[in-house]
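Before any further analysis, backbone shapes were mapped to integers, which produced the following:

***
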Amino acid sequence: MLAVGKELLIGRTLNTNADWIGKRLAKMGSMLKEIITTDDDLDEISSAFKSIIARRPDFLVVVGGLGPTPDDMTLKGIAKGLGVGIRKNETALKLIKEHYTKRGLTSIELTPSRLKMARLPVGSEPVMNPVGTAPGVRLVEGRTTVYCLPGVPAEMRSIFRRSVEPEVRGRLGKLHRKYVTMKLEGVFESALAPIIAEELRRHPGAYIKSHPRGIREGVSRIELDLAVVGEDRERTEDEGEAIANEMRTSVASAGGRVKSARGMGEA
């Protein structure tokens, strides 16, 4: 994910979009591998874009900077990174006009600022924005499919669900996830570390992560997340349960206990 916006860097706006996309992908059995945040600067956007593309990810989601204001220069930055021009896209212009018409704004003037939202990198295509004015953008560079989405959370989520998610799911195929969160007491993270290492050795495809929650009344408290993703629902469920049971036994052997465990399988 490439997040664009000075407001994210100066603490004015919390990057809830990254949080939402990360959770959404995890539920699908995929994973957000990296988040890069840049200023609203042409060279910074271009440089970050080229750096990500060079690593050849399956998908790149670019969020923010598609609007009508001067600091909205994401598409110019991407065009620069691709070494292509940027020009008016008639389909994008049609989508913008339809947006205003649906909201009863038939007499609104298409000023240069509004027309700016219809100027896309050559070779890209607009993606319908059901909520806002600026269309999303889709392009392919090498093996990477790139989606550029508005930074307004409602708009980003709407386009992601409607356009990005079906393509990601199509690439992944049908996957299932077993996810369990365990609350542990009486064991320190340093004692838990070798236990986790052994579980990862036994189950190399699993995700196991500890989150210390402090010490209360002399008792160490830890939350432990574990997840397994697979194509076969039954095998995925069984492996997740096996890891959870093994963790219970190992934590008890280390002098701790599992206070609670909550989990679900998600397609």
